[in-house]
Amino acid sequence: MKEYDKRWKEQENMESGLRTLIDERELQLLKDANKVLDLGCGDGLTLAFLVDKGFDVTGMDYSEVGIANAKKRVSKKAKFVLGDIYQPLPFEDEEFDAIIAYQVINHNTIEEIRKLLKELHRILKPGGVFSVKVSDWTTYGYNYVDGLCYDEFGSILKPIGERTFLPIAGWEKGVIHYDFNKEILKKEVEDAGFELLDMRNIKCHILGNFRKK
Questions:
Q1: Strand partners of residue 202
Q2: What's the pTM?
Q3: Core-most of 17, 54, 109, 174, by most CB within 10 Å?
Q4: Is 167 in the same domain as 206?
């Protein structure tokens, strides 16, 4: 069973500190948007928030259970796409006014992440907003023993490349993690054709807002 299918089926919510909604800053950036893509929508917490704010939202995720739960959560109409975000995205060029990707794009190798960022640039309208949030590993506690990384949450991670880890036990077992920092996130997103609007830390995450050039 896919890791997130299992977690959504168990209805095991992440800690509230990891499940932040969209702040006023991002709502202000989205004020002129209509069609929004929630990439990696999971069980629909952010998606439902956006729908309630009046946006035309499409949620995409690879977890059937997550999407089923998201549909139950949404009080108004929304669209859903089941699929792998690291494959060519099933959307038209310049289809969306804005894209939200919270705690999702860091779950692959940097090579695959770069391909995804190019796809996001393709489906976003010129001037559209891309709001992205990734884990800030500098806020976590780690120990390295015999080539393995043990984090404060009880996970054991195996290094598989530069800044790239595969959890072999614990939270998100089997889901690749790429360790971004602010400088790398800025460079990679800008290299894909976006310009930085602002960036800040929110609890244990880095949140960057970009605009398509």
A1: 205
A2: 0.90
A3: 109
A4: no
